[in-house]
Amino acid sequence: HEGLVRRWWCDEATWPRRASTFALRLSFRSDVHVVGGFLEAMQLYAVTLARGTGVQCAVHGNFSMPKVHEVAVSHGKALELLRPDELGRIRSVYTCEVFGCIRSLATFRLPGGNRDYLIVGSDAGRIVILFYDNQKNAFVQVHQETYGRSGCRRAVPGQYLAVDPKGRACMIAAVEKQKFVYVLSRDNKANLTISSPLEAHKSNHVVHHVVGMDCGFDNPIFAVVEVDHGGKDLPRKPNGTPEFKKVLVYYELELGLNHVVRKVIGKIDDTANLLIPVPGGGEGPSGVVVCSENFLVYKKDGHEELRVAIPRRKALPEERSTLVACYSVHRQKNMFFILAQTEYGDLMKITLDWEGTQVKELKIKYLDTIDPCVSICILKSGFLYAASEVGDHTLYQFQGIGDDDSPESSSRAPLDRSGAIPGILFEPRPLKNLLLVDEQDNFAPTTDMRVENVTGEETPQIYALCGRTSKASLRVLRPGLAVTEMAVSPLPGNPNGVWTVKLKNADEFDSFIVVSFVNATLVLSIGETVEEISDSGFLGNVPSLNVVLLADDSLLQAHPGGLRHIREEKRISDWKTPGRKQVTKVAINNRQAVVALTGGELIYFELSSTGDLEEKDRKELPGDVASIDVSPVPEGRLRGKFLAVGSFDSTVRVMSLDPGNCMQTLAVQAVAAPPESISFLDGSKGIGSQEGLFLNIGLSNGVLLRTEVDSITGKLSDTRARFLGARAPALCKLRADGQPSVLALSNRPWLSYYYQGRHSLTPLSYESLEHASSFASEQCPEGIVAVCKDTLRVLMLERLGESLNSTISPLKYTPRRILVEQKNKEAGAA
Length: 830
Hints:
Layout: H1 15-19, E1 25-28, E2 34-35, E3 38-39, E4 42-45, E5 57-61, E6 70-74, E7 78-84, E8 90-97, E9 102-108, E10 117-122, E11 126-133, E12 138-146, E13 160-163, E14 169-173, E15 179-186, E16 192-194, E17 198-199, E18 205-212, E19 221-228, E20 246-254, E21 259-267, E22 274-277, E23 288-292, E24 295-299, E25 306-309, E26 312-313, E27 324-332, E28 335-342, E29 346-355, E30 358-369, E31 373-378, E32 383-388, E33 393-398, E34 408-410, E35 425-426, E36 434-440, E37 446-452, E38 461-466, E39 473-479, E40 482-490, E41 497-501, E42 512-516, E43 521-526, E44 530-532, E45 546-549, E46 555-559, E47 562-566, E48 572-576, E49 583-588, E50 592-597, E51 601-607, E52 613-620, E53 625-630, E54 642-647, E55 651-656, E56 665-670, E57 675-682, E58 693-699, E59 703-709, E60 716-723, E61 730-736, E62 739-745, E63 749-755, E64 758-763, E65 771-775, E66 783-788, E67 791-798, E68 804-810, E69 818-821, E70 826-829
C-alpha cells in the first residue's frame, strides 16, 4: 500500500486479526461497501507517537519579545520555536502541526520595529506571514496569499524564499521559471500590509539559490543563481550536447514604478551552489559571496572580482572538492563576519577588508569542526545553534571567534606556478572556539526499527537504528519524560513524607528540606551542602503531615497533635487537637488551612491581617476523611474559594470557603473507589492556557480522575479517567516549566502539567517513588526532591513536551538491520 489504502482483500474470518496488526486507526465513510471481496473507500488515519526530529531549515530572530533571541525550525510538517534558557539548554517554546510540507523559512522586520515576522513557503501554493502572539503563546497568521497550485512542483514557487534586509519586500521562487515579489509595508494603523504579487518569471531558467542583497534604503535587489536550459542559442559541447552555464542575475524592485527589472551580472563558476549576502547600507560594502567548489568569489556590480581558496583538510584527496553547505551572518556595531560550514563539517570564518563601498581583501580561516548541518544560526546572546543533517542537533557557546594567529587564506595570495590560487591546509582539531552546552534528539534517518519488550518492563521498548557512518547509533526509546538524577542520599529509615520550604516568599531558592518519619521529623538546611539542623523551630519528635510557607513569610507545620505556627524571630504558636482526637489529613495553601480529625470533623483556619492563624468554622462529616485539599488563592484575592473532601464511601464533596456560606456543600461526585488523594490544579496559570480550575482525584483502584471545577458555582463536570497502575496514585504538587503541576505517584510517576498552553499527562522514565515535592536550588533551579525506599533523591526533568526518551549506544558504521534476541535479552545491529 502507498500511504492511502483504497482496497483491502480479506475474508470475514481473518478480518479482525489482520486489522489488529496495524498501529493505525481506520475510518470509514458512510458509503463503504464490499464488492467481490474488496472493501471500497477505506481511508487510513495515522497517529504519530512523537513529532519528527529532523530539521529541514532553521532561521533566527526576535519573535516573542524584543532582545529575546530565538530559533524557528521546520520539521517538515511541523513548525517549532526554540529558545536557549539562562542555563544554555534548548527550550521548546511553541510547536504546531501545519498539515503540509514546509519548504522554506525567512524572517524580516519592518523599519522601526523591534520584533520579527516569519514567512513560510510551503506546498500549499501560498505565501504565509506569521507573527508570534504572546497571549495565545502561538504564531498567528497575519497574511495568506495564494499564488499557485498546491503540491511541491518545480514551476510553483515555494522552494526558495528571500527577504530584503530592511524588510521592504520579499521574493518567493520556484525551481524553474516562476518568481513573485511582494512589497511589504504598513497601513495607517501600523499594521503589516502585503501588495499584489509582481511577476519576475523567466522561462527555461532553473534557479539554484536566491538571497536578498543589503542595499540600504535603495531599491531592493534579489540575487539569483540561474541556468538557462532551453533555446537554440546555447553553446554546444564537441559531442553536440548543450553546454549549460550558470549566471548571476539581479532582480531589482523599482519601488516608484512598482516593477521588477532583471539584470544579468555575469557568468559564474558552473559549480556555484550558494550565495552569501554581504551587509551594506553603511554597515558593509554590500554585494554577494558566490560559493563554488574549492573557491569563494566576491561579486558586485561595477566592482572587481575577488577570489579566495577554501582551506582544505590535509587528508582530503586532491580529486575531492570542498563545498560550502550553509552559513550564518553575524552583525555587530561597526563589524560583521560570516560563519560558513563545508560539507565535511568544518566551520570557516569569512571576513572582508573594506572601506566605503570598496572591498580590498577577502579572507577565510578555519575555526572549528562540528557535525555537518542543514542550517546554522548565530544568536546575539553568544550561542550557535546547529541543525545537524545526521545526529543530534546541538547548541554551542562561543569561547572565541578565531582571532588567533592561525593561518588564513586571502584573495591577495600570489598565484602558484600553474596559475592557481594556493589554499591553506589544516588538520581538524577538538573544539577550541566553541563549547557544547546542549543537545537535541534527532532520530533522522531511521534505517530500521523493532518494538520488543526485551528487558521485561511494563511497557515495550522501541529499538531504532538511526544516523549513518560515525554518527550512527542504536537507540532504545521508552515512553515518558527523561529524568536526570542529580543526587542520592541514604536516610536512617523509610520516610512517610517530604517537603521543601523557603524562608521568605521573595526567595528564589528553597531553604529547608523537611523529611517525616513514623515518629520524628528531620529538617535539612540547603546551602553549598545539605546538613541537618535542630534550631528551625519545627517539632522534631513527631511525624509531620505537611509543611508550608504562608503569605506573611511564616511557616506552618501540621502534625497528628495539631498545628505549629512559626513566625518571625522564632515566635511559635501551637494549636492542639481537642481531647484524644488526632489530625488525620490536612490541606494548606498560603493563607488557609483545613484539618480533618478522627471521626470526620473538619476545622477551618485562615491567616488574619495581624498574622495569626484564626479558626473560622467547623463541620462534622458522617465518616472519616480519606483525602482533602484546598484550592489555591487566586491572584489579588485573600482566600481560595473551594475545599475538596474525599470520603471512604467513594464520594468527593466540594465545599465553599466563602464567609457567607462557609463549609456548605456545593457539589458531590460519586467515584468508583475511595479517593486516596486529592489535589487542585489551576490551569489558568499555564502560559497560553484557556483552561480553569481542575480537581485531580487518585482512587484506590489505581485510576486518576481529572474533573473541571466551575470557578463560580463549584460544580463538577467533564470528568476524564486514566488508569496509572495497581497502586493508588499519591498526588504531590510541583512546578514544571514555571507552572503549577501535579505528580501522581503510582507504580511509576506520572506528571500532570501544562506545556505550550496544553495539558499533558506523561509518565516519568524512573522507578517508583513514595513521596515527592518541588525543589529549587542554585544548581537545580527547577527540580524534584523525592523519597524512594530509604533514600532521598534530587531529580530534574528534561525536555518537557516530549513523549519518548532515548538511551543511545554509538555505532561505528551505518546500520541496516536490527537484531533482537528475547531469550538472551540482547539487541544488535547489522
